[in-house]
Amino acid sequence: MTRFTVNNQPVHYRMDPKTPLLWALRDASNLTGAKYGCGTGDCGACTVDIDGEAVKACQTTIGAIEGSFVTTIEGLSRERSHPVQLAWLAKNVTQCGFCIPGMVMAAAVFLKKTRNPSEDEIRATITNLCRCGVYPRVVEAVLQAARVQRGDETIEAGASPDTSPDEAARRVPALGPAKR
After folding, report:
1. How far is the C-alpha of 136 from the C-alpha of 120, rounded, in Å?
2. For residue 139, how many other CB atoms are within 10 A of its CB?
3. What is the DSSP letter of 61?
4. Looking at the predicted structure, is the pLDDT value of residue 57 above 60?
5. Is residue 79 helix, strand or coil?
6. pLDDT band at 156 (very low <50, low <70, confident <90, very high)
7. Which range marks the domain in which residue 88 is found?
8. Domain presence at residue 180
9. With bands split at pLDDT 50, 70 and 90, how would you rate the model's confidence at 160?
10. 16 and 63 share a domain?
11. How far apart are CA 106 and CA 162, in angstroms?
């Protein structure tokens, strides 16, 4: 029996303590944002925040995180208004979207610790794999999210470089609670 907190809700999984966190989240809690990519911890599609660290959920057993606080992409911001999420939209980072939850979580954890990152620090830290090759836009989005978190810039929800303010306003309701 393992107990910890997921997205500010206490959970008690009656699963084998050797169960990977990824499967507990996806199968028992229906939190499907973290994706199964490689199963070896190399791709980062399953990245979640555990006690302020970006962790690969496929490589972490539920028994190993007893008493921890886990945040998934679903718990990052119910309104999808976290600066990293808004920057991802503004910089049109998403292509197919499969790797995005893990990248967003890795970036969010990174920006908790690094207020003014350099491009090299971002590239060294956000090592998630993306088959679509969005890496240059990821760097731009993380830099923008850092500026937003510092209060140097704002982003309108739903905005992107090709989006008019009117179009951005129409998109905001579509950004409601994440679907599972």
Report:
1. 12
2. 20
3. B
4. yes
5. coil
6. confident
7. 83-175
8. no
9. low
10. yes
11. 26
Q: Which amino acid is at 116?
A: N
Cβ-in-10-Å burial (0-12, 13-18, 19+) of 47 comes to buried
Q: Are residues 115 and 142 in the same domain?
A: yes
> Is 9 inside a domain boundary?
yes
Listed residues 44, 59, 76: the one ending a domain: 76
Domain end call among 30, 60, 76: 76
Structural domain count of the chain: 2
Locus of tokens 């990821």: 138
Token pair recorded at residue 61: 């057993």
* Residue recorded with tokens 């999210």: 145
Assess whether pLDDT exceeds 70 at residue 78: yes
DSSP category for residue 146: H
Which of 93-97, 131-135, 155-159, 161-165 is the least confident region? 161-165
